[in-house]
Design brief:
Number of strands: 0
Strand content: under 5%
Order of helices and strands: HHHHHHHHHH
Structural class: mainly alpha
Largest sheet: none
Helix content: over 70%
Length: about 210
């Protein structure tokens, strides 16, 4: 896959593929969007020069575009899920009621999105497996106001995209553009997701 992504790194199609993968993984968390972003960043960083001389690496524009692409798609996907959950419907309400993770997320969110702790939960959830889906649907079904959700979703998308791209870039710089560097970077992404999932499971302190 690294070779295939590498051949697309100089083509606008890589941004289309990344955007679609990130956009739809809010509905299909099994899509390897994080892996794809890391791999694309690794491929973009391959063969860069000038880091040792203090010059700007030639891959910088591609990496910035990749970060912006992934972050924008992340926010758009969040908003689509949020709006669908807001409009609801009996079938969606029944599906959410059957999901222990979604109902728990709704209980935890409550009015939290109006506070800093709620915003932090949105950011942390972006790194956790399926956490983005859970929080976006929970915010919609709880009818949280968009101005309470959107800024934190945008910050979460930028943080996740920048972290994923940075993993691919620095992995390629330190270990070369290879399966080893990609594997190490993906493990770091999985590690962040594991920590985020653990934090999300912790009970939220109740306000006095």
């Amino acid at each position: 896959m690294l070779e295939s992504v590498g051949s697309l790194a100089d083509s606008p199609w890589i941004y289309v593929i990344v955007a679609l993968s990130v956009l739809f993984d809010v509905f299909l968390p099994v899509l390897p969007s994080g892996f794809l972003v890391v791999t694309a960043a690794t491929a973009a960083a391959a063969g860069t020069a000038g880091a040792a001389t203090g010059q700007l690496p030639s891959s910088t524009p591609e990496l910035l575009a990749l970060t912006l692409c992934a972050a924008t798609a992340s926010v758009l996907g969040d908003l689509v899920a949020y709006r669908l959950a807001w409009r609801g419907g009996e079938r969606l309400d029944r599906a959410i009621a059957r999901s222990r993770r979604l109902t728990t997320a709704q209980e935890r969110l409550g009015g939290a999105l109006a506070r800093s702790s709620g915003g932090l939960l949105v950011i942390i959830a972006r790194f956790a497996p399926a956490g983005r889906s859970i929080v976006s649907f929970a915010a919609g079904t709880a009818h949280r106001r968009v101005r309470e959700f959107l800024p934190w979703s945008a910050l979460a998308g930028v943080a996740w995209a920048a972290y994923s791209v940075a993993l691919g870039y620095f992995g390629a710089q330190w270990l070369g553009a290879s399966w080893l560097s990609t594997g190490v970077s993906v493990l770091a992404l999985i590690g962040a997701g594991t920590v985020a999932a653990f934090v999300m499971r912790r009970p939220v302190p109740q306000e006095a």
